[in-house]
Give the backbone structure.
Amino acid sequence: MQLIGMLDSPYVRRVAISMMRLGLPFERHDWSVGADFDRIRQFSPLGRVPALVLDDGTVLVDSAAILDALDDLVGPSRALLPATGTNRREALRLMSLAVGAAEKSRDQLYERMVRPPEKYHEPWVARCRQQMHGALGELEKSCARRGPSGWLVDDRLTQADITVACISTLLGDTLDVFAGGAYPGLKSHVDRCEALPEFRATRSKWFAAEIAQS
């Protein structure tokens, strides 16, 4: 299999980590949606990453669809997302909060990095910031309930842990969300995940992190 995309994307990264955890071999193409847009569009018509080229040539786009396909490939006993019940619902809840926080962080960053200065709209940025921190606050509550040695929804690492950690690391790199000791439970959980081999092997700061915090 071939995974297309750079590891500074938390969506590419969560796929790469998942494949490593599941023991699924893959080749990664470190292509940028900026510099390599046309090349990416040969596989992903939207020009988005991640894209996963399966061994039969089928191309999957969108990390959620890819992760679902990987779980289906390995079967329910090894799947990273719990198959049924309250653990599945809780995992999906936490993942949706993390993805929502990532979307609101993206809106803040794009407002600063892409929009012309005369069009910069601080009230919109403030609203996005409030939404992002609302999601992070809920993740903090879940991490505090589970404690420093517990995984988020089970007695093993699941997709909830992977997704929350990948996105939280990005937010730490780009928007310094852990400054001043904020979200200590979430930060402890992220640090625990980032110490794992698959996380260390895929750690890559976002390409514009310094610009984002300037």
In short: The CA atoms of residues 140 and 177 lie 12 Å apart. The two ends are 38 Å apart (CA to CA). Confidence is low (pLDDT under 50) at residues 209-214. Strands lie at 2-4, 27-29, 51-53, 59-61.
